[in-house]
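Please predict the structure of the following assembly.
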Amino acid sequence: MLAIIVTMKAICPICDAPVTLSNDVEPSEVVTCKECSSRLVVESIDKQSVTLIQAPDIEEDWGE
Ligand SMILES: [Zn+2]
């Protein structure tokens, strides 16, 4: 028996590097590109094709 391991793949919209995702990735999940350290959001999932978009910048100065 052959085990088929499905790996979700996507392309980083920032640096075009391939980003490997777990096969149980879900829409709106935030991942980090290993190449450019950009925060990315899973926009859509179509079988083995995942679309990533750049995560909105998070304001770090919440406290006031
Ligand atoms: Zn990247």
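DSSP finds no helices and five strands in the chain. The first strand starts at residue 8 and ends at 11.
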